[in-house]
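User: These chains co-purify. Model them together.
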Amino acid sequence: MMRYLGVTRNAMMCGFTYRLQFISSLLGNLVLIVVTYFLWRSIYDHASPTLAGMSFEQTFAYLALAAALASIFRTWMEWDMSRAIVNGSVVMTLAKPIDYQTYLFFQNLGAVINNFATLALPSIVFVVAVFGIHLDLGVNIPFFAVAVVLAGCIAFTIDYAVGLMSFYTEIIWGLSTAKDVIVMLCSGMVIPLGFYPADLRRVLEWLPFRAIYDVPLTILTSRGMTVAECGHLLGLQLAWALAGTLAVKMLYRCAIRVVTVNGG
Amino acid sequence: MKVIELDNVEKHFTMLNRHEGISGAIRDLFSNDYRTLKAVDGISMAIEAGETVGFVGPNGAGKSTTIKMMTGVLEPTRGTIRVNGLTPHRDRKKHMRNIGVIFGQRTQLWWELPVVESFRLLREIYQIDREAYDRTIELFVELVRLDELFSTPVRFLSLGQRMVCDIAAAFLHCPSVIFLDEPTIGLDVSVKSKIRSLIKTLNETNATTIILTTHDVNDIETLCRRIIVIDKGRIIFDGDIQRVSKLFGAYRTLKVDLSESHAGVTEDQLRSRIQAKFACNGAVAVDRVDGGWMALTIDQDAIGLLEILSYVLAEFRVKDVKIEEIATESIIRRIYEGALR
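Assistant: Joint model of the two components:
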């Protein structure tokens, strides 16, 4: 495992090569947060002070943090996987004595760490400084940290599964876009899950997507969650992370047998 | 000891039969009309430890596919492959530890980072101990002054410099087998010769088995004793490079300078007159070379070179004469064009 840490190191260094990208990505993220603020402000102003049991402050804190989390997980990994298949450069990775999934995980980790430091942290500082959101911080902080790590693992397995489909189809544009939309709507990334009708919510409870955004955000923003409740949510995440890992391992076994390497 | 053994290996690809034009492309969206392409169609061979084998064949012959199967990246459709006693696609990790791969058109180096970062990562991935790593690096510093490139980001390297670094990267973990797929593609003459001597030295110092594909005959001539010619997914020649020359040993080229011939002979005239005189179709091929020279490639089994020479001397005003043994390049060209089939 330790021998893969170098991949993370190199991926982090690669991220620092194109410096302007940080500023433009951060700017985009901040604009998104500002738009979210005004959108929900006007929704609340025209409705009632509490919607779906959440005050405006709670909803905005939830969504602003969701935007920060999303900026961490957005690494375009499946696009890189697809490109490597299309131009055949995947052969250089496959011809190494490594586990492909582990290699990509650690490579992705480098981008995730960069995103955390250059996008998520400044975004959170911005939200706190400009909008002054208030969070009840305490025992939920360590639970939140663990939840974010597990959420990252689940997001990775979903991206990786979509990326593996490029072994079959080469281009995954449609699949990746569909995945983005599904994750966006089913995970609480753009609309807190509490706003959905009860029936739909019950379905979403059974899907892995809420484990990416809703679970960590609920742990952080809900007032008075017990340790047992947090533990239950983490257990749910862990189950999805394990199931996802197992599923993509099986998918890889099939995909690697049909891989074609384009070009001479 | 046999390092690589291939037994009746086949690789099939299924491809959609595509149609022309926009309407064809739309039809293809719903088409179920597949065909099977046999990229490799029953290849068997055995390669000894320490050998340098040249893989040649026209574009699209199946060389790269064969290499990709030997590296374990592709799984053969049929047949068995053993490299170092392992089945490449099954014992992946163990197998990959023992091999090095270079694809001339690609790089395994990290595009954005200084060269040395890629080396550092390889040292960790392959768990190369410090001493062995330093030894290999030192060798490359000695041979090609590699240290001058260490701190340059890979994307700023020239093609030749990048290739030198890629070769170093492939040799870092001292693999027992190296696959070089067109390592000299697109390089200038001096870099090519540098890379050849580099490969040769590495083969000699580490006794590395080298499988090389190339379109440059000079690569083969300087590096390989044995060549394997592949065409349409099959081996059409496997053996000593000397033997190839002997196969076509009967051929020699007679060059005559007819620039002062007042009639201004064309190659067609020359060919037809020789054919009329000796009645031997195809035994003499006439090509125009620049500066009034004509090249007559003569099959000496059919007709004597001296006979042709005395005829030409008698019939034309010849300014100068040269006799050449046939070059490996034209032999290989003849093999491609079907001389062995």
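Chain B has a mean pLDDT of 86.
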